[in-house]
């Protein structure tokens, strides 16, 4: 589910009140007033330039609660990008997300408010890596996590997100699947689907000696999210020892051991909806900490425990001032070579057809 901002935030005063209601407990008033002025200028430019601003759930709170037309996870924002009639898309997220918007909207201008908003997962695998895997496991369909760059998407059969990974794998009706690049998400999907997963070595000669001895149903890759890999089962045990009533929510990019120890696991949207709809008084989120701040702001009657402040350094490249500069200067435009875009479109479009 995506979230649309209120439509009446047309003045600095309205924005200030809106931000104060959500962030007044964690942000001083002078900063709220300054953020409201920035947000007002962005919203004016957005209207003048016929732009759509998409904000990922990991955006810092002042941005998240002020300028995006729509906020959500990567799957829902991809769907929104595919449907927009705006001339410009400003994607407040990391580069692979903006690339996906461009893949779906080749005729539109897509901007990202940062010159270096990367991703540890996207950088863990290359298109050549995928080609080599396909050569070693001929005929095995390739599922690629949306957290990858366009040239990698172009080499796969279908993309997935953390919210629909299980459904995508099942949709293939295949005895074996290559699932890239997140090691932990692959392990969690393997556990859910009952598949035996292997992680072949990158050394082709060594692989040739051992591959025949392995009975595999899923082939993974050793890529990890630098945020989610930091959470441990010991973290959960320590929190529960002090707060026995806590409900623990873990993102599927956490290790299978952490996901198994949690009370709930799901995409960012699934976690948002869980906190909103469940009658829980105290919860712990094992994911990027800015999202925790955003959920807490919208659920003031529920206590969010602070395990640690794990901020994605790449998401943290994007703030209100960067978004303003992107619109003012049309800077950091995202482009995808057309031959790569066409092939990547096929895998992304197949993902969008999965009703999950």
Could you please describe the fold and organization of this structure?
The chain is α/β, with parallel strands linked by helices and 356 residues long. The chain folds into three domains: 3-116 and 315-329, Rossmann fold (3-Layer(aba) Sandwich), CATH 3.40.50.10800; 122-224 and 337-352, NadA-like (Rossmann fold); 228-304, Rossmann fold. It is built from 16 helices and 14 strands. The protein has helices at residues 12-23, 29-48, 61-64, 74-83, 95-104, 127-136, 150-153, 165-171, 183-193, 204-210, 233-242, 256-261, 268-277, 289-298, 320-329, 338-352; strands at 3-4, 51-56, 70-72, 88-92, 109-111, 142-145, 158-160, 177-180, 197-198, 218-219, 247-250, 264-265, 282-286, 303-304.
CATH superfamily of the largest domain: NadA-like
Helix tally? 16
Structural class: alpha/beta
Contiguous uncertain segments of 5+ residues: none
Termini gap: 11 Å
Radius of gyration from CA coordinates: 21 Å
Strand content: 5-15%
CATH top level of the largest domain is Alpha Beta
Task: Please report the total strand number as a whole number.
Answer: 14
């Amino acid at each position: 589910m995506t979230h649309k901002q209120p439509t009446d935030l047309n003045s600095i005063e309205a924005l200030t009140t809106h931000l104060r209601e959500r962030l007044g407990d964690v942000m001083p008033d002078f900063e709220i007033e300054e953020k409201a002025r920035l947000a007002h200028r962005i919203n004016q430019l957005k209207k003048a330039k016929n732009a759509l601003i998409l904000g990922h759930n990991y955006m810092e709170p002042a941005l998240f609660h002020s300028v995006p037309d729509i906020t959500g996870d990567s799957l829902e924002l991809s769907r929104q990008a595919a449907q927009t009639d705006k001339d410009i898309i400003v994607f407040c997220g990391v580069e692979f997300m903006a690339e996906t918007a461009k893949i779906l909207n080749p005729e539109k201008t897509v901007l990202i408010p940062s010159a270096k908003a990367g991703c540890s997962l996207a950088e863990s695998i290359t298109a050549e890596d995928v080609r080599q895997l396909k050569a070693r496991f001929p005929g095995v369909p390739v599922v690629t996590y949306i957290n990858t760059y366009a040239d990698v998407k172009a080499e796969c059969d279908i993309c997935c997100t953390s919210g629909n990974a299980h459904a995508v794998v099942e949709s293939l009706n295949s005895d074996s699947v290559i699932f890239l690049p997140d090691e932990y998400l692959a392990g969690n999907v393997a556990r859910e689907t009952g598949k035996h997963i292997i992680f072949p070595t990158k050394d082709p000669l060594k692989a040739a000696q051992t591959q025949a001895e392995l009975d595999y149903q899923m082939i993974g890759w050793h890529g990890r999210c630098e945020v989610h890999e930091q959470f441990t089962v010991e973290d959960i045990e320590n929190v529960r020892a002090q707060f026995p009533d806590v409900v623990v929510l873990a993102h599927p990019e956490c290790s299978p051991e952490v996901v198994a120890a949690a009370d709930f696991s799901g995409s960012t949207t699934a976690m948002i909806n869980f906190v909103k709809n469940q009658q829980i008084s105290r919860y712990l989120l094992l994911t990027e900490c800015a999202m925790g701040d955003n959920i807490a702001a919208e659920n003031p009657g529920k206590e969010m425990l602070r395990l640690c402040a794990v901020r994605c350094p790449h998401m943290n490249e994007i703030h209100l001032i960067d978004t303003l500069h992107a619109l003012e200067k049309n800077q950091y435009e995202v482009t995808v070579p057309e031959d790569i875009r066409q092939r990547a479109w096929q895998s992304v479009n197949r993902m969008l057809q999965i009703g999950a």
